[in-house]
Amino acid sequence: MTSTSAGGEQQDYIGKNSMDSYEVKKVTAPVNWETDVPGSKSITNRALLLAALCREQVRLQGVLFSDDSRHFLSSLQSLGYEVQIDEAACAVEVHGHGGSLPVTSGEIHVGSAGTAARFLTAMLGVAEGTFVIQASEQMKKRPMKPLFEALLSLGASVEWLGAAWHLPVRITGAGAHIRNLSEQAVLNLDISESTQFLSAFLLIAPLFPYGIRIHITSAKTDGSYIRITRRMMEEFGVEAVFDGCDYMVQAAGGYQRSGYQIEPDVSGACYFYAAAAMTGGSAKVHHVHWSSMQGDMKFLKLLEQMGCTLTEEDDGIRLNGPSDGLKGLKVDMNDFSDQALTLAAIAPYASSDVTITHIGHIRGQECDRLHAIVMNLKNAGITCEEGDDWVCIHPGKPQPCRIETFDDHRVAMAFAVMGLGCDGIEILNPGCCKKTFENYFVVLDSLLKH
Length: 450
What we know:
CATH topology of the largest domain: UDP-n-acetylglucosamine1-carboxyvinyl-transferase, Chain
Mean pLDDT: 95
Number of helices: 14
Radius of gyration: 22 Å
Distance between the termini: 8 Å
CATH superfamily of the largest domain: Enolpyruvate transferase domain
CATH architecture of the largest domain: Alpha-beta prism
Number of domains: 2
């Protein structure tokens, strides 16, 4: 059995690999792995905002340190929040400022972090003061319009510093107007492109003196990441109620918490579980349990449908892949679409077609992920078809090719798993994994060395 940890400083990749590309080593036997993964990005960045909105000092443990979370941390510091960072201990202490910001002007840079872009834009849009929000070229292309429309309806003003309805912007918050409200705030919100728009307004709900009612205008009204947001809000002392159409947060005393433990990243764990499933091997990721609030736990159940067995042990869930190969299936992955790439990458090894549906929204993420799936599979000689929101992948043997990652961490990590089962898969720009799991290829190398 091979065991490794996700901790430690970022390193260069071994063997023939470099920061420009990573040549995946084909395994010659079923994998037998145990590993750790870093903290959840989704939970880390929600916890950072919740801590900032507390009235006290909050110690966060199990924090993910990656490109996304570092941009969130630096943005909080640029806004005047006092933050102590201990990367070695995976810990951060945030001195909360309650219902107001420490400053009334400033500039932040959210990088490519969708959570930072949506959550902090919402917070600044209901604060007092004028702020500039900068972003990476990648983030400048991602959807923001429903968030801006909602902020404008609340009284914020926005100056586009680039393309309309996109970052970068100069935003003057509606804080003075909101502070003088005499009743519950009401807004309409379309979350078809991203549930982060709703999570953003739920997280800042305590800033509204009489609470807020958010009416969802899109067909999609709920999702796994919204449930993470609501659960974490409750853990910080504020309840968000959903009646099937509207989300309501009543006026409350604000968030309260002195410490918070962040779960391991199930999204990152899924790549190691997928490797075991694909090779008929075994993998256990430490501290991943069924009690997790993360929606990507559904991916483990999906692998079970494909023939894997799952066992919860004291220190984590163990997956054993089928000795006779994975079964094909048709699955709606709308609610755990980050793993659509992972399933697509192992789909060629299934005994029959794999069809993934209701994932049209992934075209507007770090890249057009549906296009990335189809292009890279076809380059590897795999037959597949796509529609606006679906892809069908036929069984086949991947041929040597270079994987174009489009600077998307999930493309890189998923297609590395495909390369474990065949020769000649080279991942371009593996450094893009710094967004959420900067040591991913170091961990993979360590597991493959033994």
